[in-house]
Amino acid sequence: MISTIKTKRVVGAGVLSCMVLFLLSACGTVEHKVNLLNNFTPDQATGVEVGKVTNETGKTFDPEVNVEDMLRRALTEKLTAEGLLWSNATPKKLVLDSKILDYDQGDAFKRWLLPGWGATVLTIQSDLRQDGQVVGTVDAKRTVSAGGAYTIGAWKTVFDNLAGDVVEDLRSKIPKVEPKQ
After folding, report:
1. How do the domains of the chain map onto residue ranges?
2. Helix 67-81, helix 154-173: angle, nearest 10
């Protein structure tokens, strides 16, 4: 009888642990790539300026959800953190013009009830320009399609995560300036 009670407690604790883990976990997709045209190779001392950001979704959002500003801010922060943001001291400049092709705020409660329902989605396409000429493109998509409490606020954090993907791709193509010793 005592072993039956212990077994029920262990099983109950296991089920409770699985429920907590599911509640706090998140799943989604991440896709991003940079494509430089005509074998274009940026110089080591190239900075990236955040250019135009436009909403091409055909949707309007609540006033507190300014998708253009959210993407512009996230890109600027990530470029700054990686040392890629253009300044007057940087001799070469690439301008990153971005179009938000798809955005859906999603709903964490719906994702928790049924994965895939209430997904948060952000898709962008960006052109890289140097001296007004397109020299490359960056495509990126992030989704949060499953999860519970951990995914509350994903409608905001998806911008930071996607901007990180874009800057990671840009850093892979623009060599880091090594400090002189």
Report:
1. 27-173
2. 40
Give me the residue label for tokens 């494509």.
35
Tell me the pTM: 0.78
Q: To which residue do tokens 């013009």 refer? A: 97
| Top-tier CATH class for 27-173 | alpha beta
Residue 111 CA to residue 95 CA, distance in Å, equals 36
Residues 6+ apart with CB under 8 A from 74: 159, 160, 162, 163
pLDDT tens figures, 98-156: 999 999 888 777 766 777 777 888 999 999 999 999 999 999 999 877 765 555 556 78
- Helix or strand or coil: residue 57? coil
Rounded CA separation 162/147 (Å): 18
Q: Find the Cα–Cα–Cα–Cα dihedral 135, 159, 53, 90, rounded to 10°.
A: -50
- 79: its two tokens: 């470029």
Q: How far apart are CA 90 and CA 76, in angstroms?
A: 16
Contact 28, 146 (CB under 8 A): yes
